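Reader question, answered in our methods column.
A reader sent in the components of a multi-part assembly and asked whether the whole thing could be modeled at once rather than chain by chain. We filled in our standard form and ran it. Here is what they sent:
COMPLEX SIZE: two components
ENTRIES:
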Amino acid sequence: MQVVGETTQLQVWVATEKRKIRINEILIIEDKDLGNLRGEVVETLSYNPFIPLNINGALVESNVIESLSQLGYDIGGSEINIAKVNLFHEAPYPVTTGCKVRVPEFFEVEDLILFGSKEEGLVLGEIKSTQGMYKSLPKHLKGIAKVDDNGEVSQKGVPFIFPIKEMHQYPHIGIFGGSGSGKSYGLRVLLEEVMKHKIPMLIFDPHYEMEFKGDKRYQTSYTLASLGSDVGVEFSNLNTRDLINLLGASHTLSESMINAIEVMHQRNDSLLSFTQRIEGVVTALELGKNGLEKVDLDATDDPQKVQRLRNLLEQYGSLPLSSIKGLQWRLKRLENAGLFTQDTEKIELGILSGKSVVIQGPVWLLGVFATYVMGYFYHKRRQFKDKSSDKFYPPFVIVTDEAHNFAPKGYDSPSKSVVKEIAQEGRKYGVFLMLATQRPTLLDETVTAQLNTKLIFRTVRGTDIATLREETDLTERECKRLPYLRSGDVFLSSAIFGRTIAARIRMAYTESPFSLNPFDELREMSSLNDKELYKKVEPFLPITSADFTDVLKKIEGINSMEELTKVLENLSEKGYIIEEKTPFGQSYKDK
Amino acid sequence: MYDKELIEKLKKINLTLNNAKNNIPSKEYIREKLEQVGGNFSFIKENVSLDINLMGVDGSFNSFGANYPHQILVFRALAKTTRGSSHMISDVVCPMEDKVKAEIAKISENSNLSYSDAMTKLVKIKLASMELQVAVEAIKKNKPDVIFMDGSLIRYKIEDAKGWEELKSQCLVNDITIGGVIEEIGTNSISQKLEIHGYDRETLFNLFKPNEKLIFHNIKEELSTIFYRPSNDPHPVGMDCLFEQKGKIEEMVSLANHLTPKGGRGIPIWLDIVDNEVRITTKAIKALIENHLDEDIKRVFFVPKRDNRVI
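And here is the structure of the entire assembly that came back:
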């Protein structure tokens, strides 16, 4: 490789006939005066004298090109590869044209591509276009980040290691990418690595996909908690603010409803006492003062109860009935979802023992719960650090997919204030966020701005690309590549290493419950059915049309002539049995 | 901006040339006349065997510097086959070298030319003999079936008779068909034969239908020449073949025609590819000199003052 054409102190063109040049590849330019300069390929093109189909002004027709290849001329072989290379550090004067360019040895660029040790960092994948350095890679860095490249699983380049300790300086991670871009997969790999370091995590999983099956090492690192049946909210722990947030999470509350909660909720209320109070107020308001007096006259009811209703009426009689009924309905909904049947003990135990707790539930309920639980644990940790509590609480990481539901842009949601607070102040207390979303544009801006590291997968939407361009150091050129990234390819933009790195996410060690392609799943299911049917039919083979009535009588689960014909036809079509035409009608034989 | 005199003179030339153009006999007349003297228009056959190893030979020359003798001349010749072998030789000549000085003096004396004209002649000779040399060397290394030379074969005979004989005998011994592809027809032999005033270029203009050809034997000594129109361009092109190989001339033309882009100027693509590879651009020669000649030497001897023009 050689420097060609005009050069500047920042940028050179490199050309070679011998090899392909990869985008994002790091190259070393051996300039006699400037010494060895390091640069990154930012643009590649391949030039063939004939493919522009214009040689010396004449358009070359395809049949002429074809004849050339028939004559034995290797058209592809005369290709010239050209790359635009940006220098990492500005040179004092332009690079000498014609100087040699080569692939670096690993140690020469180590500071540019290795950001931490594999013991202390997160091994997330392989840095793209570093294949040339694999030979000179130290042994302990080989074979630790196998990637799937067109079905071939191996590590061919330098691993990408994210120095998680640096998060203390530059907290929070954002994971962006459209559906099918490898975002959830990337999140999985990220979580696997965090778990390896025994850092406790609070994972909100609205898709029920964050199970880590298939690798024993992770089995003890996480607890699965289903919202409503394993974990929930201890009602008596709620203060009035929490309760307003909870009730407001699924459907917004009106001013009078908030007022009603503030008036009616009392310290240490249990679910029972609170619902009874609401019910009582509803009954009292419905009966009204006159009604209650009538009840007294009949004297058929419990006088104590009547007295209680009267007290309630006196106390809360000014509240509008419709608001209280609205509250009653909202409370019922949460109760039915099981939110109040359990408490947060399982989560607390998990966090304290350094495990990751995966909380699964429908997204609306998860939002409600996350609001409560994030605030709860964040404040416990905060109290420990502020020395207002002696009880040790470990630092932890909060992880969620569909993060735009938790901290939406443009309108207020109960969870938003918590997420925002952690985004802005969590660093001090060692509480970090990992937020994944398909739509970075819908995520609150204050939160986006605090995500110091961003993993950007394939993104197609223009508005999202524009947001990413604003929020990262992705260049125009890189943004243009965003819609075409392969699933699993990612740009890592981080304040920690100060530039954008293209990488490919490594193979996950664990499996998602959704890893099976839905179409394969369908086929698998239908072939399962075929097998079952074949088993049923098998004892009666060969079957001719004359036998049908006989077979029908003996076979189970097939009830009509029509059905039997269909089953046999289907089985012969799928190759389980052979269909033959005989003078006496169809005959079905075993293979 | 331009003075009137200049414009008037150009208009006059235009008028003269217009008259000359009007004096060219009609297409029909010329065709008839050509047929009378034994010319036979026919269409190029389409069936071409591409199971051959085709070699293209071309040379290139460029110079850097001021006027004679403060110049550096760079030569390059390339023989490249379609089967992937390529053989290139190159040379750098400076008229200030003693050896070159002597050569120029010799040419000047023999041909009665000024020194700078003698150098122009030297360039031609040098280019022709380098092309011949590279062709012979390439034949020995990698035997092609067909050779296309860039330009008329007669040129080689004129500039370097000895080298031409060597190449010719190599081709005949090894049964290699050789053809010279003539892009620019510069002869007047056909016009003379038809007793038409002017050059063949004018006479043959728009005479051919696309893919039509016309063969002449011995209008140049020892060579057969064929004129044909391979592309849509109304100017025909020509091809020379050895008289000994005249039986193969139709095959050669078919091959050349087949390999010529119809929208182009009429040259087989292979020669363009060879030309593209061998060409020494002014930019390239400048870069070479910048990198490999000391700055003071460059300044003292070669940089023309016109390079320092400011307006």
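What stands out: The beta strands of chain B are 42-43, 54-65, 71-81, 86-93, 146-150, 177-182, 212-220, 223-228, 237-242. The interface with chain A takes residues 48, 50-54, 81-84, 258-265, 267, 269-270, 272-273, 275-276, 287, 291 of chain B (CB under 8 Å).
Send us your own complexes using the same form.
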